[in-house]
């Protein structure tokens, strides 16, 4: 397994996606260091500490302050950035972790109540989805790798598929895409680095995030039906996509209509957190030299899953 990567840095390794990446990387024989604002080791929603946690080096660091983690970067083969926020009010994460369905729904319903400009603060979307990733990438490419690292080092950014609007603010998608673009600009001038932009759809886990199970099941069935029906038969996804591209004014390539997002939700299957983590770890493999956008179909191909229901872009490999 050491051929894939020897040591990786996971930004946000004690979170929902980050913990899955840490666990999967360890199972593939990698050394793992995690940084987070708290530096605390991962615990399950019930407060348990899995056995694998003691094999991770947990560090407290500020992703916006390279001095707090610059000593780690020279010795890692790759960086996996997993932190971000779906809502500007980040309290929803705690409610989801606690299984508080009502509280989560209230967070979604109140997503527009906070005005960052009025309060004189930067949006959490800009800070977590964009700034942390860009600062990390800049510090990574500026670091001088130790003598034992000679191959191309990947910077993997967990982005997102456009499946959340209009429930989630368009700034979520925009900051993810802006981060992808800026990271690619930074890496373009450094041939010893490659950018990988993982775009999951709805991420679910029946045990860690039980409230995601029902919607994941519903949208998985929808994706399978859409994949099975011949393309010449109108389906909800195709109708919404046509309306979003042909009827709605103001839609652009950067920010498509919310109807297009709804069409994606109906036609792109959800992805299990462990499958997402597995695809991320495979993307670390220098032999595959994966670069650019990796959508759900690409992830399913990487880990050997059926392609039923997938309507996504193809990875640039």
Textual characterization of the structure:
With 317 residues, the chain is of the alpha/beta class. The chain contains eleven helices and nine strands. It has helices at 16-27, 92-97, 101-109, 116-119, 124-142, 170-188, 213-228, 236-246, 258-267, 273-283, 296-303, and strands at residues 7-11, 31-36, 56-60, 78-81, 153-158, 193-198, 203-204, 271-272, 292-294. It is globular and about 60 Å long. It has a seven-stranded parallel beta sheet with strand order 3-2-1-4-5-6-9, sandwiched between helices. A two-stranded parallel sheet has the order 7-8. The model is unreliable at 111-118 and 309-317 (pLDDT under 50). β5 (153-158), α6 and β6 form a beta-alpha-beta unit.
Shape: globular
Tell me the β content.
5-15%
Estimate the mean pLDDT confidence.
Answer: 87
Biggest pleated sheet:
7 strands, parallel
Global structural class: alpha/beta
């Amino acid at each position: 397994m050491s051929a894939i990567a020897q040591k990786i840095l996971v930004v946000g390794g004690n979170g929902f996606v980050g913990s899955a990446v840490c666990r999967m990387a360890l199972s593939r024989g990698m050394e793992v260091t995690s940084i987070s604002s708290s530096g605390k080791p991962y615990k399950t929603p019930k407060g348990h500490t899995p056995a694998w946690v003691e094999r991770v080096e947990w560090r407290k660091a500020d992703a916006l302050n390279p001095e707090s983690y610059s000593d780690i970067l020279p010795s890692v083969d790759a960086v996996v950035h997993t932190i971000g926020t779906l809502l500007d009010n980040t309290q929803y994460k705690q409610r989801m972790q606690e299984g508080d369905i009502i509280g989560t729904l209230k967070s979604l319903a109140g997503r527009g109540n906070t005005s960052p400009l009025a309060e004189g603060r930067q949006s959490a979307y800009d800070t977590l989805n964009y700034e942390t990733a860009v600062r990390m990438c800049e510090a990574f490419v500026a670091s001088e790798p130790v003598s034992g690292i000679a191959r191309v080092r990947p910077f993997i950014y967990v982005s997102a598929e456009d499946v959340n609007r209009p429930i989630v603010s368009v700034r979520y998608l925009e900051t993810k895409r802006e981060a992808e673009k800026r990271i690619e600009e930074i890496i373009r001038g450094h041939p010893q680095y490659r950018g990988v932009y993982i775009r999951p759809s709805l991420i679910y886990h029946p045990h860690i995030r039980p409230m995601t199970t029902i919607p994941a099941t519903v949208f998985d069935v929808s994706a399978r039906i859409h994949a099975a029906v011949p393309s010449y038969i109108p389906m909800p996804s195709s109708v919404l996509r046509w309306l979003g591209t042909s009827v709605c004014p103001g839609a652009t390539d950067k920010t498509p209509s919310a109807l297009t997002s709804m069409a994606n939700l109906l036609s792109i299957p959800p992805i299990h957190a462990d499958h997402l983590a597995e695809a991320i770890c495979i993307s670390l493999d220098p032999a595959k030299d994966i670069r650019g956008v990796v959508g759900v179909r690409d992830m399913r191909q990487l880990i050997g899953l059926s392609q039923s229901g997938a309507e996504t872009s193809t990875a640039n490999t």
